[in-house]
Amino acid sequence: MKNLKLLLAVPLVAGVLYGCNKDEVKDVPENAPVEETNTEKQKNENAAKSTLFNFTEFSLDVDYSATESYDVDYDNERTGMEAELEDDRKNEKLYGDEAFTKLEPLFKQLTFDSTTSNDEVIDQVISVFNIADDYQSIEVEVKFEDGTEKEFQRIK
């Protein structure tokens, strides 16, 4: 009886774990920045590298109301890239390659860095992502290539 429970539990756990990875990007561009360990950073510090974006993580949360929001999550680490876009107003939920395909041209338009002011970052995000004026709050969290993490927000 004990072996039967174990035999049934293994496929169940494997299925659950497989289902959790639906936002993983399979077709990762070669020059996308990747979060690195300190040793890797030191090795690559002097090497010139061409990257897609100046960040390895990007999170955007726009709240229009208690039931309507626009969310973007992008994460590129050594273990892989993940992308997700959810737009309640358009009833759109994209994950993995499909989300990255839509987000990549938008990310390429973002020119801010860790020294850019809060208002400039928010204004740029509103423009690039075409955020409607009736939002209640916007929050952007970014981890830049150099490891700096910043949070930018605006509440109406």
TrEMBL record:
Domain of life, source organism: Bacteria
UniProt xrefs under InterPro entries? YusW
Name-wise, this protein is YusW-like protein
Species for this entry? Lysinibacillus contaminans
* Organism placement in taxonomy: Bacteria, Bacillati, Bacillota, Bacilli, Bacillales
